[in-house]
């Protein structure tokens, strides 16, 4: 897998043989094994590319080591500054998993989302941010047609989801409002690893009046700043 990178996510059999120093027959057998195991997928022109399984394993490994420790002070800072709940999420299959959260002093908290919660990718700011910035994740999600409408504001149709994700990519962040839980809003920004791949999100969530009110610009700036600082701490880009 070390032969693939963000600049060359697809490689041909000949290129892999050249990079590995092995003969083409041996490489072909190994590649077929990895395809059958679900680690690689065949592309156009006899090329191969890593599947989401590789990324998911990497995310789990990173989530269990440096990511939570580096993110903790930034989550605390967001929660203390605004009084709402700051979240750290990573992708896992068709879901975003909350691996850490810090609750501020607001008398109203979002109890439905806590450490260990698993959210669908098509709703809420953190998961939608993953759809926008994790390579291949949007197409994988669109291959399914069973997206649940949690509220009247949930985006479930493929074209609507594509448009939403395109907007998030263009902005560099996501803002959700009542699409997963009624009267709950959030702002999320992507965290990038050393290879430039999005490995998770940092977000701030609370009631709509608190997140989307007069503090909205300050919250957006703080969340994006926290995600940028966390990316730097992880030597990401």
TrEMBL record:
Name of this protein: IclR family transcriptional regulator
Pfam families, alphabetized: HTH_IclR, IclR_C
Keyword Transcription regulation: yes
Keywords: DNA-binding, Transcription, Transcription regulation
Native source species: Aeromicrobium piscarium
UniProt GO BP: negative regulation of DNA-templated transcription
Domain named HTH iclR-type: residues: 1-59
Lineage of source species: Bacteria, Bacillati, Actinomycetota, Actinomycetes, Propionibacteriales
Segments forming domain IclR-ED: 53-236
SMART domains reported in the protein's UniProt record: HTH_ICLR (SM00346)
GO MF, one annotated term: DNA-binding transcription factor activity
Superkingdom of this protein's organism: Bacteria
């Amino acid at each position: 897998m070390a032969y693939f990178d963000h600049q060359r996510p697809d490689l041909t059999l000949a290129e892999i043989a050249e990079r590995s120093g092995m003969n083409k027959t041996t490489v072909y057998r190994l590649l077929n094994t990895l395809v059958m195991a679900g680690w690689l997928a065949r592309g156009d022109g006899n090329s191969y590319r890593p599947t989401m399984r590789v990324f998911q394993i990497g995310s789990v490994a990173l989530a269990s080591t440096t990511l939570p420790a580096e993110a903790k002070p930034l989550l605390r800072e967001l929660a203390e500054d605004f009084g709402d709940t700051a979240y750290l999420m990573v992708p896992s299959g068709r879901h975003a998993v909350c691996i850490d959260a810090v609750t501020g002093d607001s008398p109203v908290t979002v109890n439905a989302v806590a450490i260990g919660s698993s959210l669908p990718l098509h709703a809420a700011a953190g998961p939608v941010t993953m759809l926008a910035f994790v390579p291949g994740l949007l197409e994988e999600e669109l291959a399914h047609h069973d997206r649940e409408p949690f509220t009247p504001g949930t985006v479930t149709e493929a074209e609507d989801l594509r448009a939403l994700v395109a907007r998030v990519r263009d902005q560099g962040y996501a803002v959700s409002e009542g699409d997963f839980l009624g009267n709950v809003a959030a702002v999320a920004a992507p965290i990038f690893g050393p290879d430039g791949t999005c490995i998770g999100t940092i977000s701030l969530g609370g009631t709509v009046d608190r997140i989307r009110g007069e503090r909205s610009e300050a919250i957006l700036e703080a969340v994006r700043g926290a995600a940028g600082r966390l990316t730097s701490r992880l030597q990401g880009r």
